[in-house]
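User: I'm writing a tutorial on reading structure tokens. Could you give me a worked example: one chain, its sequence, then its tokens, then a sentence or two explaining what the tokens reveal?
Assistant: Sure. Here is the example chain.
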Amino acid sequence: MDDRVDNCHVTLRDFELSDVDDFMVWATDGKVANRFCSWEPYKSREQAELYIKSVVISHPWFKAICVHGKPVGSISISRGDGTASCRAEIGYALASNWWGKGIATQAVRLALSTAFRDLPNLERIEGLVEPENLASQRVLEKAGFVKEGLLCKYLIMKGRTRDFYIYRFCCSDLHI
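And here are its predicted structure tokens:
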């Protein structure tokens, strides 16, 4: 199946505090947060403002996924420390009313096209996806990630130990 971005101009940009209302659309949506995200749905605008101020704006690579200039999701690349600084983990969330349109795949592709330049000496980006999250697996696969294997009982999330597939994209996979 082809990407279905149908007339949607997808871009990535830095978040601004003025994006809080758009951020709240997906951050308060239980369909987005409850099942596969590590965070719970946000309860207040103040909680979202604090998160944007204290985490998002200061993060080295945390972007708004925009459609026609309006934020509809977020994508981040979080680099490892010390001996793991050659790799990073990708994470993304998209407002549920934009699911199934190819926007997340396009956002991941855009992230890959700039992250290796923005983050010096980065060689590998990993994505961790629960086996039940078929949509996110498809996003990574369509963006060129390779499934490396299953990490059994890998993380405790929302009180339950969970398995994750690990996907990887290496800088040598990038065709510029």
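What the tokens reveal: The chain has one domain: 10-173. The first strand starts at residue 10 and ends at 14.
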